[in-house]
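hey so i finaly got around to running the thing on Ribosomal protein uS12 methylthiotransferase RimO from Litoreibacter ponti. pasting the sequence first so u can double check i didnt mess up the copy paste, my clipboard has been acting weird all day
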Amino acid sequence: MSQNPPDLRPDLARATVPRDDTNQPRIGMVSLGCPKALVDSERILTRLRAEGYAISPDYEGAEAVIVNTCGFLDSAKAESLDAIGEALTENGRVIVTGCLGAEEDYIRGTHPSVLAVTGPHQYEQVLDAVHKAVPPSPDPFIDLLPATGVSLTPRHYSYLKISEGCNHKCKFCIIPDMRGRLASRPQKAVLREAEKLAEAGTRELLIISQDTSAYGTDWKDREAKAPILDLARALGQIASQDELWVRLHYVYPYPHVRELIPLMADSGNAVLPYLDIPFQHAHPDVLRRMARPAAASRTLDEIRAWRADCPDITLRSTFIVGYPGETEAEFQHLLDWLDEAQLDRVGCFQYENVDGARSNALPDHVAAEVKQDRWDRFMEKAQAISEAKLAAKLGTRMTVLVDSIEADGATCRTTADAPEIDGNLFIDEGFEGLKPGDMVEVEVDEAGEYDLWGRMTS
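ok and heres what it spat out for the 3d tokens, dont ask me to read them lol
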């Protein structure tokens, strides 16, 4: 499970957030899980800051701590419980929210002394709990916030959540139970937030949701069959004007996704040629047991069509190995499919039972040692594909976004790299004048299994 952000959590880094010198009550935040949870944390902190609270970078300086939990997998639940326990030990006054917050009895069974428990994106309930535990102290001279609110990511990139919930019924997933059915934000609200982020200096917008392709399909009075197409065009126009990137995450391979590809192929549009699509598996029988679309052969046809329309497109996906009933033949089918698909960026998880998931009741669960073996073999295959694809980039020129500067070099990302989940491009010479958020042109002169190295061309 990812932890967001690793350098701003009081349990991981004590002194990275500048301490406020105000006398306002201080609230700490521990944010676990996916980027969608990170956006929730930012919204909570923004509201608190506007109501007269300061943000504490450590446990000791906080009068209460909010723990935004993840509850997707059993391992994530365990880590969330550990984080709650540490916050209780270090501070003692803890408010729990997030996906695991939907299971209040489960949390209180381990940590009965938490002050309050709320579910995911229940902002008002979190604020009520904070007000009760630590009354606010408004100060009109210091409560004013920038239009973008409180951000937990570096200033040059921002997550932009366009919807909540999901209408899929995948047997291994309980997200719809925790976050509800699809609820899309109005397009005007999304575009207004994008404009504010651009004005504040964001160089990359990372578009997230549970199902980005389905954006707007929950609107009964919608005119467009697939509103994500209009939203992507509008975001691309904003990004083109402000010279920033737009990156789409969590895109399900519906037929209308093909209509997004021309936007990505258009050099005048800032929607990056990058699709993050959760295929999960390739064998049709496994996909049926997952209750996912079982059309892997047609998916390969779609991939070929995408690449024909946009040769520079980067395809990222995630897969599950060891799903209940998965045979060796089905797993080998997945490896063969991966050979043919030649995806650029790949993640893989070993199946885990999750409380409340329908997959728990499926027969023929795969032994732990078999799951580990299959994961190892899958990642070996994916690594070889990645290494070959990156080697083909030697000698090419590309624009990169600078993420950080250290004593020995600059860490950057190409259009093929999302922050924290993909690779990097490193510049180790002539980087002294760079700063985070700069976009520079480089020539690739070295390639590894997942990363590139380059030198600036000007």
